[in-house]
Amino acid sequence: MAIAPAWKERKVIPSIRVISSKDKATRVFIERVEQYTRSDISCGSSLCLRHCRIRDALSEDIRRYVFPTATCVERYIDCFENETISGRHGVVLCLSELQKISRHALRLVSRIRSLYRDRRRNVYVFDDVHHEEEDVKGPVAAAGWYLGHLSEHQDVSCSALVDDDDDYGCSIGGDGCIYMYDYMKSEWGQNDEIMNLFMAAREARKSHDAAASISHREGIRKATHAQIERGIQRGVYIKGTLKVDGRHSGRSYVVKDDGGLVHIMSREDRWHAIHGDDVVVELIPEQSTASCIDDGDVDDTFSSLVDEDVSTHSQAVQQRGRVLHVVQRRYNDVMVAISKQDEKALLSLGPSDTMKSVICVPFDHRFPKLRVKSRHLDTYISKRFLVRIIGWDEDSSYPHAHVLKCMGPMGDLKTETDVLLHRHGLLFGEFVQGALHELPSGGDTHWVPREDEIQSEIARGRVDLRDKFVCSIDPEGCTDVDDAMHVSCIDQDTFELGIHIADVTYFVKDASYLEEEAASRCTTVYLVDRRLDMLPSQISEDAASLLSGKPRFAVSVVWKIAYDGFKVLDTWYGRSIILSRYQLEYSQAQAILDGKSHMNDKLCGLCSKEDLEQMRQGLVIVRKLAEDRLRIRLKHGAIELDSKELKFETNDTGMPQRMYEKQSLDTMKIIAELMIMANEAVAKKICESHPTSAVLRCHAYPDKDKLQNIHAFCQSFSIGNKDMFTQPHAFGKDLQYALASTQDPALNSLLKVVANMSLQQAVYTTAGAMPSRLHAGLGLSNGYTHFTSPIRRFADILVHQQLLESIQWDGQYKHTARDLESRINTINQKTRAAKICQRECSLLYLLLLFAKEPTRFEAIVEEIEESFIRIFIPQVDLRGIIRFDSPDRKSTALSLLFPSSSETEHISIHVSDQGQYGYESISFQDASSQASFSLQRMSKLWVRVESEISSFHGPSLRVKILPHEYARNQDSVCPPLRARMTGPSSSPPDANEEEEEEEDYSASTPPQITDLTSALVNLTISKMNMEREEQHRATSSVVINHSFSHQQKDPVREKLEQAVSKLAEKARMYTMRAKKFKPGSEKHTYWTEKANTAVSNSSSIVHSLFWDSKKTYSSLHMM
């Protein structure tokens, strides 16, 4: 067999292999291995003056090179993954050391591979195994070789990094070999984050090996690997991935390889397995599953977010089991905070450098409490910080973890938002220096291409379109302008429409650092308070952004279109240079289109009359074109779901003050339709040139299971006919018919939500990977892609590259099928994560707003079950469940329904007979007052939505049912709703904390409550006496039943005194509690506010409920 020229002769190289047995006896074997050597192995350094064959991997700015051993890489991989270390120092990984790791720590291989493949990091794999020189094998020898290899640079230093029990420890003291501890202390000792990370990993590895072998369930026979495999083959054992329910931490499932689910009934059956672990479960016979399901901690009782991991599949669970083995831990990174009890202990001990251990509570309910050891725990009090789970001992109640990074104070809005970003893998760091060096230089002003640069591009084939009347239309305040357009009349039969998209690929070259940054982020993330850019602002907001008055490079699609039928006569694709005349907002464009430009303050003096008229004529043309295209797409089954988009006004500190719904304008729909048109045209072009590798955006029809859900929904509410939503390809048309036949706006909104949940996710893919190029949501069957937003989507950059290849622009983009598949998978993952994160961020702001000011909403009863009702709030598109299956949840949901009832346990719940689509009604009855309240499916009800602040898990929604009569007249009946909680400090103090304070501060108490009962009752009775006759006539219209003889005065007075007395007694009790604490303290303030609130509620409820004669008898039992 012929040998490549680079290979030299075969050599017999001695190799040392060390084996440690279970009895800790160590054997050393010297093997002689035959292998070929090479003469062209590169050092990978940009400083090298010799001819290295492959591209430089280590930046020329690097002057410090380190060569870690396999032991150091395994133990301190978190440190080498830190962007600061790998950004400032060159990390050279010897191939011989990586081979050692691959033999016993396969789980680290993918992390190491990600390290050296990321060009933004200065990490390089040096092939010391096949090097022609024999004295380069191993980190110590390689460090010495590098030092001589780069001898022209006197400021370069090279050191091998070894740990204290490493095989290379004998080399310490010689040149170029230091302990890992000494390196970290000398180079990074001033960086607290890095040192905390290193020290935590150093202390953790002494007792917990990250590559632990398979753990065995205590009390069950120790099964070998062979026994496990045989059990899996027989079906006794099942292998899968553990998923814990995001809302009920006691519920978990194992997802099998075929997608099936095995229900894990309790935490005990879950054993030491953690969310995300690969496990083997033992199936439990049905007769053994009679025990109660452990719900565990409940995240919230109501949420707009659908838990798509496991909770939606609960009905499909047929098998039940318990975890037998943990095959592989995922070693999740978890956001935590120190438990309150341990925080108190730390504060009492004071700062010290001694090792301490605390229990931490995770932000995510799916993970258990963790034990964390560190010498610096006092710096994490009342803060959220990131830890990595490293193991779970069989005799321990908690898994062990070590600290990675501190996020910030709990309750801080930026911290809470960062927690959401990290949870979804979107907490981007700074752009690497290599990427910043590739940015165009514009100085202090906007970047403008030089004239010689423009002429050079025109000579290469770029078309000069600066004479076209180009404008952009974007949201208010938009700075990253992706797209612009021009419309011009060719003759009386045809017109020209051009869509111009920012030419990002002009700045982001193939295989550049900028492309690596964009590929890792994949998308710009838009949050309420900030925007996380995919590309640096010098490109996204300046050089590539199509700003008005600046010549800009673009990639254009220009059509020649006939007025008659809007038939496309010709299409041109190419690179161009444009000059945008105006950068309009949607509202400005709408005013121009409506002929009301004189009424828009922002347009006054901005445009001449001639320009305004030209823009108006162009907008009229494209509006007709957009309407025609939308009509055709709807005919082909396009799905139009206009959901509400909430916006928030914030104060100077970023806290939300008000929410409002985003206004929908015709110009938004026009621009959206034009972008769809451009994307469809580009998809057609790249599919011709790349029939199997074209990057497309595909959206399949709903599957049959989800079709059954919306079919049952429509049938239960008598929407449409029985044949609707039975065929996937007719989903769009059925939905249009269903929406048109629904007269109730609230039900219409609910139908859209249910329809949206029935749809499959649109995904990026390649033309050859899908059986069809369908985009069901848009009604397009011949291919669709994303081309119009390359500033904020990496998929669009790939499409631009393929389009430039298709028009034979010089320069080819080399993407292998494997590389393209990997990138598309990452894009899909990041895109979905960004959408969920944006939705959760909006929900966070909504919850903070409800915490400040609880709000009433009218809701729809969608579904009724024995232990819950499912409701929908159209005003904010919230859909969720109000539960009654535990005393706490029952108390939360029904506390305002029967205010006169001291205990919600006296409230009984009854449901009607079950019909075809569930229970038709549910009723609540208070045994103490004999009052009742009923709800029917599809009936309206009033609810009070508030938010409960949790220090550990963030805010969560709480929904309380309001009586019909209590909420009907919002102005006169219901008193103003005030927020009970304004932040974490308002949470009720523990009962134990009250007794710890011994000093009495009775000298400073809240305002005394004197004879409150008598005053309010007398005022009420006098009003009732004047309107007795009218009250008597109103009795028959009372909705909530109350038996009471209005002809007797004494019983009335007696009930009033009892009701108001209870409220007054609460106020007195709170006053006495406040006396125990120092004025101005948190607890004193808390109980004082509770007392004042009781007084205010007493007065408000009595006035509002008894002064209105029509509510007299219905209100008495509510007190």
Describe the protein.
The structure is a single chain. The termini are far apart. The model is unreliable at 1-5, 20-26, 209-221, 287-293, 298-317, 969-1050 and 1100-1119 (pLDDT under 50). α28 (1012-1026) runs parallel beside α31 (1082-1106). This protein is globular. Strands 19, 20, 21, 22, 25 and 26 form a six-stranded mixed sheet that branches. A five-stranded parallel sheet has the order 5-4-3-6-7. The chain has a five-stranded mixed β-barrel with strand order 9-10-11-13-12. The chain has 1119 residues and is α+β, with helices and mostly antiparallel strands.
Low-pLDDT parts are 1-5, 20-26, 209-221, 287-293, 298-317, 969-1050, 1100-1119
Amino-to-carboxy terminus distance: 96 Å
Overall mean pLDDT stands at 79
In total, how many beta strands?
A: 40
Oligomer: single chain
Q: What portion of residues belong to β-strands?
A: 15-25%
Number of helices: 32
Radius of gyration: 35 Å
Shape: globular
In percent, how helical is the residue content?
25-40%
Q: Main β-sheet: number of strands, strand sense, barrel status?
A: 6 strands, mixed
What structural class do the secondary elements suggest? alpha+beta
